[in-house]
Amino acid sequence: MTDILLKRAYSEPASSDGYRILVDRLWPRGQSKEKMQLDLWAKSVTPSPELRKAWHHDPDRFDEFAEYYRQELNQNPAVDEFLEELAKHPTVTFVYGAKDEHVNHAVILRKYLLDQLSHS
User: Fold this and answer.
1) pLDDT at residue 55 tops 90
2) Which of 14, 40, 108, 120 could cross-link to 21 by cystine, CB 3.0-4.6 Å?
3) What does the angle CA 28 – CA 104 – CA 21 come to, to the nearest 5 degrees?
4) Are residues 99 and 9 in contact, defined by beta-carbon separation less than 8 angstroms?
């Protein structure tokens, strides 16, 4: 079973992070490839630009955003391939740029994928 961790893009990478995946559609401002030490940039499983802009990181609309994002993931053919990649690594860290560590799409993506992995 793959362990999926979450870490802000502005936090220092650590050896305990395992396989590091940027799960943002946009590159985090002010960060370099070298500094972030990423193994993969998974734009294909991030919220659509339309959904991201409609939500605009409004904590009051997080539950609504989560529902729409899960619907997008259910219809996204890239999810199966992404799950196969995750299964190759015992520890994966999703790297994201959002300021709020609890109200962001990476939290939703992590839970969604862990649910998928536990049912496979």
Assistant:
1) no
2) 40
3) 50
4) no
Strand order in the sheet with 3-8: 3-8, 91-96, 19-22, 40-41
CA atoms within 13 A on the CB side of 63: 1
Q: Count how many domains the chain has.
A: 1
Give yes or no for a contact between 31 and 10, defined as CB atoms under 8 angstroms apart: yes
Q: In sequence order, what are the residues at sequence separation of 6 or more whose Cβ sits closer than 8 angstroms to the Cβ of residue 37? A: 13, 20
Segments forming the whole domain that contains residue 66 = 3-118
Phi, psi for 40 (deg, rounded to 5):
-155, 150
Two tokens, residue 108: 């939703």
Question: What confidence tier does 2 reach under pLDDT thresholds 50, 70, 90?
Answer: confident
pLDDT tens readout for residues 61-77: 999 999 999 999 999 99
Q: Provide the 8-state DSSP code for 20.
A: E
DSSP string, 32-89: -HHHHT-SEE-GGGSPPHHHHHHHTT-GGGHHHHHHHHHHHHHT-THHHHHHHHHHT-
Distance CA(96)–CA(9), nearest Å, equals 5
